Amino acid sequence: MFSINSIMSKAVGLFWGEMSKDELKRFGILSITYFLLIGAYWLTRSMKNAVFENLVGYSRYQPFAKMVSLVFVICAVLFYNKLVDLLKRDTLFYIFATFFGISFLGLGYLVVHPDIISISQGSILSSVTSFIPGKFLGWFMYCFIESYGSIMPALFLSIVASTMTTELAKKGYGMIFTFAQLGLILGTGLVATYLKTLGFGVLFAIGGLSICLMPFFLKCYVKHSPVVKVKKADASGPKPPKTGMLEGLKLLLSRPYVAGLLVVTTMYEIINTIVEFQMNTCALKVYPANLDGGVAFGWFSAMNGLSLGILSLLFALLGTSFLMRRFGLKFCIISYPTMIGIVIASIFVFYMVGASLYFLMWSFFVAAVLFKGLSYTLNKPSFEIMYIPTSKDIRFKAKSWIDGFGGRTAKSVGATVTGVLRGNFSTLLIFGTFASLGLVAFWIFVATYVGNKFNQLQKENKIIE
Length: 465
Known about the structure:
By secondary structure, this protein is an all-alpha fold.
């Protein structure tokens, strides 16, 4: 008779390879934590554009919201980098998770009652805020969700990378990212199924409660799971001087390997920002928000996320760990931009042969699902492992700049393109296609360098400091 543990071990072995009892416990706790983190993010993210459309106006102001969020995230990353020097990693996670969780609970109430924080025309602040289009709450909500998506996943994955070896990571990262896709499916599924009945406020509150649960699981991981230290080969010598809050930026600019990780990590954000704007522009014409308060548009966004989650889950179960073990990390980070180039070229062909707006909307839908799905399950797990042969300052400080500032800057570049060309869809599609294909070529070149450098570091047992 098979025990539950035996069945679980066989299931884990089927999808992610053999794991010991301690390894299964370790990655099980981490997987649940990341499940909650990503589930809450996609639950709120699926509603972000619809709420922004209601409070501000998506087609006209979303590109500018991307740019404003860059400044917002830079401030958050600077604050985060300072706290890295002052607090333990797990303590930092507890603080940020509690802050974001409580804040999302508050946002859940405010998006239902936006006039509570409205500034009257006769007040002193009205002259300061009068230039802001729409409601200030819409801008704050947009930037806040972007900040959560930049800081919390990066902080969690930095903790994971700093507590295990490359070989251990290859075993468990597939499991962690599989549970992330389950969280994505649940979060977007809740929006797609219950947005009309529960409304934006209740769903925001559910996301906040999920985030508040994360510190308890990470506390369990820290308490009960043995920490596997990364071997600091060739790192002997005098103790390095204490670094400051800009150290991550200095490392990013002075270490070619780290700069390469910036390109591999963020290049797709430029392309995806353009594709998502094209998709949502088509969707708002097919599902006008003024007819139902943005519910249909919110459903479309949630279905995009739900489809993304299903694809990502299937690939995480059947592809991530297998491709890493069979072909190596270099293959993974090169095959992803190659796929993006093929999809972009295909959509351009559809447009040139006269595809309808409805067909183009669903073509962009498929492209956005593929780009993000394979980013989460192929590209992201691969470059996260590539942080392992690096110093603490690179894993935490430089990585926070890459994930926060770098990712947001890339989105702002894409938003600049959409902002300038948003009035002419044809020009945006043609220009965006050729610009994206050029970026893909550069991306493949850099990914080849990073993959070769990683293999060299592993072979020589060295780290980047």
